[in-house]
Design a protein that fits this description.
Elements: H1 2-16, H2 30-39, H3 41-45, H4 48-53, H5 56-65, H6 70-87, H7 95-100, E1 107-112, E2 118-123, H8 132-146, E3 158-163, H9 174-187, E4 192-198, H10 204-214, H11 217-220, E5 223-226, H12 238-245, H13 248-263, H14 265-268, H15 274-280, E6 285-286, E7 304-305, H16 316-319, H17 322-334
Parallel strand pairs: 2-3, 3-4, 4-5
Antiparallel strand pairs: 1-2, 6-7
Helix pairs in contact: 2-5, 2-6, 5-6, 8-9
């Protein structure tokens, strides 16, 4: 039986790795799932929050991540559970975004792909903070906001669209990629369905080669390079790839977001903040919060409106779904104590919910 299962694993891996639509090991040996669950049961018995998190689906996910290797899966899941006990990631948001600069990072859950997998969008140029540790912390925030809102297997993943249009030498620190990819591999295995890198310049080639040297080869195979909506950068044509993954509404939102950042860079780069927009429920007006984060040398500049009413929190159908509302409530609750976000609290349209238990 073990030899037969090994042959199945090999075939599954060949079909799934490098395929942004397939999954490795769609069928698991349930005896092994039971064994992995038993191995971590003492940790679950000691902590109610961990017991709620460690569902059978999550146990299966860790076994799938290690391609059925029970010993490796036991170590990875045990390490993750101990990390979750120590860090309580489900209660936290990015400290840089709520305390230092509301524009620290621009990586957020903004929609769904055609299969119902979550869509995460980031713009490298809009992120003001370039520190590895706080970038990893922001990734943790995004993934923890996704976790309770993901669809069942095989669509319990996210597609990450990364816009490179303002990528510069200041973004060349491999420590940022190392910190984020390490977090994904250790504590969020089998969540990343693929990365679509839009408009990556020649400058990125050196960093990409450096990252490939230490990244999981399976993750590297999940990368697609796509030309930007303005025709710049290397890769496949923009429209066919967007049509492959996203419906017309979501594709239009992505194109509008990217083109607004290109055409109106000087206006929006200083003003766009997903954290402020989510707290106050105002995603198409940018910079209204600048009085809360004043410049030491310049007076606050007037707010600007998004192009054609474009809302940075996602397209209209996404903003109407339960997942969007859940994320907004969680962000307001977890970030209510921030040095900056605490001063946004009275602007939230439904007030600030009570902290989660």
């Amino acid at each position: 039986r073990r030899r037969s299962r090994a042959r199945v694993m090999k075939m599954d891996d060949q079909a799934a790795e490098g395929d942004l639509h397939g999954r490795a090991m769609p069928v698991l040996d349930q005896d092994d799932v039971d064994a992995l669950a038993r191995a971590v049961q003492p940790i679950l018995d000691s902590d109610e929050a961990i017991r709620r998190w460690c569902t059978r689906a999550n146990v299966e996910r860790f076994l799938r991540a290690d391609r059925g290797n029970l010993a490796k899966a036991t170590k990875r899941l045990t390490d993750t559970l101990e990390w979750r006990v120590a860090e309580r990631p489900e209660t936290r948001v990015c400290s840089a975004c709520i305390n230092k600069d509301l524009r620290s990072h621009y990586m957020n859950f903004v929609g769904w792909d055609r299969r119902g997998r979550a869509l995460v969008y980031s713009d490298i140029g809009l992120a003001k903070d370039k520190t590895p540790s706080t970038n990893a912390e922001h990734c943790m925030q995004v993934l923890e906001l996704l976790e309770p809102n993901l669809r069942p297997f095989p669509n319990d993943q996210y597609v990450w669209v990364v816009d490179f249009h303002r990528f510069s030498v200041y973004d060349m620190n491999p420590g940022v990629a190392s910190a984020c990819l390490g977090l994904f591999a250790r504590s969020y295995p089998e969540r990343l369905a693929g990365m679509i890198m839009v408009g990556a310049p020649m400058l990125f080639n050196g960093l990409y080669r450096a990252v490939c040297a230490f990244a999981d080869p399976v993750t590297v195979k999940k990368v697609r390079f796509v030309v930007g909506p303005d025709g710049k950068g290397g890769g496949k044509a923009f429209d066919p790839v967007m049509d492959e993954f996203f419906d017309a509404e979501t594709k239009a939102w992505l194109a509008a977001e990217m083109m607004e950042n290109r055409k109106r860079w000087k206006e929006v780069a200083k003003r766009k903040s997903w954290m402020a927009a989510t707290f106050a429920g105002r995603g198409s007006t940018h910079g209204w919060w600048q009085t809360l984060q004043p410049s030491k040398t310049k007076p606050p500049e007037p707010p600007v409106e998004g192009e054609g009413g474009h809302d940075i929190r996602g397209c209209e159908s996404f903003r109407a779904c339960d997942a969007f509302k859940n994320v907004a409530q969680a962000v307001r609750s977890r970030g209510a104590h921030g040095a900056l976000t605490s001063r946004l609290a009275d602007l939230a349209p439904e007030g600030i919910p009570e902290p989660e238990e």
